[in-house]
Amino acid sequence: MKLAVPDMISNSYFPAIAAIELGCFNQEGLDISLELIYPVDKCYAALRDGTVDFVGGSAHSALSAFPRWHGAKLLCAQGQGMYWFLVMHRDLGGKRGDLDVVKGHSIGAAPWVDMGLRRLLIEAGIDLSRDQVKIAPVPGAQGAGVNFGVTAAKALEERKIDGFWANGMGTEVAVRRGVGTVVLDVRRGDGPKPCFNYTMASIATTDRLIERSPETAAAVVRAMVRTQAALKENVARASEVGRKLFPPSEEPVLARRRHPRGRRALREHRGDAVFAFVEAVGWAKRSAPTRLFRIGTKLRVGTAHAIKLALRRKLLARAPLPTLQAGATRFLIQSDASGGRLSAASTSALARVKSKLR
Questions:
Q1: Which of 49, 115, 159, 193 is 20–30 Å from 125 (CA)?
Q2: d(CA 129, CA 320)
């Protein structure tokens, strides 16, 4: 099986990469390889077309290939909150939290990633047209090979752009080179309050896979829990994985930019805010009323249909793995042709599951 990520040298999707390199998928009986596909909408297109089995990318971007969320589910989070940084060139004199610095300037951002910045600026009172803020792809990013953020940092250094909205790796590179100033780090409280919940790094798969093999979907979630526990137990493991995959100049940056939110990757994320965001940025017609369910650790499957299968096959009777921590959760987007409402049978199945988890 294959897991696609839109960025390789990145702390954003590092938990998925680490799950492969640390053998956590193998420990769950899964043979999963990593595939780089840029940008993220092409990752989800590959998932839709069946050329990959899972995507480790931004949650909201699933809509690019699965209108109205039909056909895909989010199995779990890799980390909490919107995870990109706003970095502006140091010569502009920007300060932390001062969004006026974007006025009259160009900011590089990847497709679908840019949606988060656009909405954030609007909520902060910035009018993109009036204030002449240009948000566009980073020059040369299509051929970046392995890392958008590092390419953005290079473009900033060469003054091809005035700023960028990208991952922590590119942010650290720009700051270390003395060319960039961090204006926003959303996960540390910068920006309008709602923006934290616009999206998150997640693991997604298709309804087809879940219906065909709910045990596989459950094993992926357990592997991600194993990975987070292993990284929390010994952060040096991040550098161990980085040395295998990253250029020598980037590997030391990884441990420094690994955000504490990542250690609680399977806790509750505000699903209602995610859906409010995708509607606000113009995807309301493609994201009909949809529910995001939070299911406790004893549940090992990914959809209402799979929940019924689990009950039938008595999967819920099995004890959870020791690495599953109290309060850990997974995030399941439920929708159907009727506009996202669960059937009576599915609702009944969920009620039975909840009663078992109390």
A1: 159
A2: 52
